[in-house]
Design goal:
The complex is a heterodimer of chains A (427) and B (293).
Chain A lengths: L12 H14 L1 H11 L2 E7 L6 H20 L9 E7 L7 H10 L5 E3 L4 H4 L3 H6 L4 E3 L14 E3 L8 H12 L5 E6 L2 H16 L4 E7 L7 H9 L4 E6 L1 H14 L7 E6 L5 H7 L7 E4 L12 H15 L9 H18 L4 H10 L23 E5 L16 E5 L12 H4 L2
Parallel strand pairs in A: 1-2, 1-3, 3-4, 4-5, 6-7, 6-8, 8-9, 9-10
Antiparallel strand pairs in A: 10-11, 11-12
Chain B lengths: L3 H31 L7 H19 L3 H26 L7 H24 L14 E4 L2 E4 H23 L1 H11 L1 H6 L4 H26 L7 H15 L4 H22 L4 H15 L10
Antiparallel strand pairs in B: 1-2
Classes of the chains: A alpha/beta (427), B mainly alpha (293).
Chain lengths: 427, 293
């Protein structure tokens, strides 16, 4: 056995490499490199990629993926750890999500959790997430934490306090002279939550509800319902519907008419925010006052918003998803920004510390500043009520310019005034 | 709130809606009603036809009804192929063919859904035509043109299919194979070829029905799930194999649904239609127009 001896004053190649390696590892750069190789930060979620919510789910996921790519291009988080997304398709079904989140937590051992898009798939995972004491960034669900009371839940949606949605819409309707309300809602959790708050707000204001119907999912034809609604001659029509129904309802309104008494029509129609639906509906949208989350009006641009949409537009075409992506995609990106800021400030992945930071600070995002109240919803509502104006048929590009959806609420984002009554605003 | 005007409106819209239900159930009346094939992929083929119509309308400006006619021969071939596959892999293998056939057609439905998503994405699609989005005024009643189109096409389609099955040689052979496959074989005919032809016809009809589907309301890749219950309900209520009965049963369903939606509250509509189905089956297990076996 021979022993290799280095001459005094000389350094062997092996020793040189070892010393250099040790020096690099000891330096901050070295620590980062080792960490980056060792463990990416895994963020787990289910996201509807098929089924009725897939349109929104795909756009939302693309927003999150753009954030992941941006943050990784900047070198990752916690001094160089790359972000990795672990995503499963929940098929838009509430029955799928509990098993998926169990797998994400126990098998994939993700570091953080994002909620799936929408209320229905999120609701069943809330008790489990609370029981395990995990941070959950919510994704456009409505009031899923109201009964569960999880103190580590933070919803990215701009809804704000539970009744703010109905309050803002009824404010607009009453200012336009509305003295009675008709309520038409889908018979499912999200729409029923909206309808419930609308009923409560109307009762508080002594606003008579002259029509209150919940239609079943899979309703094909809305002519009969619209005719019955019209017969009650309401001033304000508040609709809480899901994508396929929103289209059917608007078509029926166009064919049957809704009556001259109606001052405002819309409120909570999901689907009228999606590019394909907007393109399909075209001029039928004119006059409708509906909720939205982001619109290309001057007041809606914050640091990074324009750059985000430049990236989104290119990637959405390749991915065959909503080419506009206003409704969900920037909020998916904002979910990433919230996480990024919390991790950077806390300096670890400690979930309690991250939750504390998120609760106590205001966060800068591409959809504006976000601050949370105790229930994990936005402290102040930033949900928009906007009126469609001057929309023509079969032209998706028109929606990229301002003025097609005039923001009526909130005041600090307002870009125009209501045109009423509804029939007058249709032309 | 009850008024005669509303009731009249509900009946008129119900009849038109019922004809639409009849049109989308006709193919199933042949494949399930006459041939006894558990065709649970029927609504998936229907949605596929709608997307083909959408493609022709969007890219070439073809009127949806004309597009429906254009794709009819393609759907006929698709039907021939689907039945052959089903026969070779399941039907000829034994007595539990029906149960395994359901699995086969569920698989086909799933594949169709995935193919549509890959090609068109998951967003809702609709077509444009001069008769979509407008209504015909008849006194105080306004009738959407798209429902009138569905009514007219469903009536003509039912008449043509009934004439084909009763007046042509192949049509009579299809009825014969539905009644006694072995007797037909003894007469020298190949019942499998007759059934394959019939399945092709049932699928070809879906070309037009798919056009009606996308004319009446926008479609998305998962819409087939909404029509499984409705189409099977219509066919079973009518009595297996009765084409005229399919239209009448569909109208009864449409009128019931429309009256309930208008006058009694929207949430009751599905319960009422299925309650009607159960009641009919309790009184006449063979359906309204089916013959006792």
């Amino acid at each position: 056995m021979s022993k290799r001896v280095s001459k005094p004053g000389s350094i062997s190649r092996r020793r040189l490499l070892a010393s250099a390696g040790a020096a690099i590892a000891a330096s901050p750069l070295g620590a980062n490199l080792l960490q980056a190789q060792a463990a990416p930060i895994k963020i787990g979620m289910s996201m509807p990629q098929t089924g009725g919510l897939a349109g929104g789910g795909k756009a939302s996921l693309l927003g999150i993926e753009i954030w992941r790519d941006d943050v990784n291009a900047k070198g990752g988080l916690l001094g160089g750890r790359k972000v990795e997304l672990v995503v499963y398709d929940d098929k838009s079904s509430a029955s799928e999500t509990p098993a998926i989140y169990s797998k994400l937590i126990d098998i994939d051992k993700v570091d953080l959790l994002f909620a799936p898009y929408a209320t229905v798939p999120t609701a069943p995972i809330m008790p489990m997430v609370k029981q395990r004491g995990l941070l959950l960034i919510g994704n456009f669900s409505f009031q899923v934490n109201s009964k569960v009371g999880h103190d580590m839940w933070f919803n990215n949606a701009p809804w704000g306090p539970a009744d703010s949605w109905a309050t803002s819409y009824l404010d607009i309707g009453q200012k336009a002279g509305g003295k009675s309300m008709a309520l038409l809602s889908a018979d499912q959790e999200f729409a029923q939550n909206l309808a419930k708050t609308a009923r409560e707000v109307a009762t508080k204001r002594n606003l008579p509800i002259v029509f209150d119907q919940a239609y079943p999912p899979n309703t094909v034809e809305f002519s009969s319902i619209i005719r019955a609604l019209k017969a009650t001659k309401p001033d304000i029509v508040y609709v809480a519907s899901y994508p396929p129904d929103s289209t059917g309802i608007l078509r029926a309104v166009n064919e049957i008419g809704i009556g001259d008494s109606v001052k405002v029509f819309g409120g909570g129609m999901v689907g009228l925010q999606f590019g394909a639906v907007m393109e399909n509906m075209g001029s039928l949208l004119n006059g409708v006052v509906n909720y939205n989350t982001w619109l290309p009006e001057k007041s809606m641009y914050f640091e990074g918003t324009r750059e985000f949409f430049d990236k989104y537009t290119k990637r959405a075409v390749e991915a065959k998803i909503d080419p506009l992506g206003y409704y969900l995609a920037p909020f998916g990106y904002a979910s990433g920004q919230l996480t990024e800021q919390a991790i950077s400030a806390v300096g670890s992945l400690d979930q309690k510390a991250l939750a504390k930071y998120l609760r106590e600070n205001t966060h800068k995002t591409i959809v504006g500043p976000i601050a949370f109240s105790a229930d994990g919803e936005r402290k102040e509502t930033a949900v928009l009520q906007a009126q469609f104006r001057g929309v023509v048929d079969k032209n998706i590009e028109q929606f990229r310019s301002s003025g097609k959806q005039v923001i009526l609420f909130p005041d600090h984002l307002k870009s125009g005034e209501l045109v009423a009554p509804f029939e007058a605003a249709r032309t | 709130m009850f008024s005669l005007d509303l009731l009249l409106d509900a009946v008129v819209i119900g009849v038109l809606l019922g004809c639409f239900y009849g049109a989308v159930s006709l193919g199933l009346s042949v494949s399930f009603g006459l041939l006894d094939v558990p065709h649970v992929a029927h609504p998936a083929f229907l949605v596929l036809a709608s997307y083909a119509v959408y493609f022709l309308n969007e890219n070439y400006g073809v009127d949806p009804l004309v597009a429906g006619l254009v794709i009819t021969p393609i759907f006929f071939l698709l039907g021939l192929t689907a039945y052959r596959l089903y026969y070779e892999t399941f039907e000829k293998r034994g007595s539990d063919a029906a149960v395994r056939g359901i699995a086969f057609f569920f698989g086909v439905a799933f594949i169709i859904e995935v193919l549509i998503i890959l090609q068109f994405g998951v967003d809702q699609r609709s077509v444009s035509a001069s008769y979509i989005g407008k209504a015909w005024r008849l006194g105080d009643i306004r009738i959407p043109y798209r429902l009138l189109v569905a009514f007219a096409v469903a009536t003509v389609l039912t008449m043509l299919l009934t004439l084909y099955l009763s007046r042509t040689f192949m049509g009579r052979a299809i009825r014969a194979v539905a009644q006694d496959q072995e007797a037909l074989r003894l007469m020298g005919a190949n019942p499998i070829k007759v059934k394959q032809w019939a399945f092709g016809i049932a699928t070809a009809v879906l070309g037009i029905s798919g056009a009606l589907l996308i004319i009446v309301s926008p479609v998305d890749p998962t819409l087939d799930r909404a029509y499984i219950g409705r189409t099977f309900c219509v066919v079973v209520m009518a009595g297996l194999g009765s084409l005229g009965g399919t239209l009448v049963a569909a109208i009864i369903l449409g009128v019931a649904e429309s009256i309930v939606l208008t006058l009694f509250g929207a949430s009751w509509a599905p319960a009422i239609s299925f309650a009607m189905l159960l009641a009919i089956l309790a009184v006449r297990p063979q359906g309204l127009f089916g013959r006792r076996s």
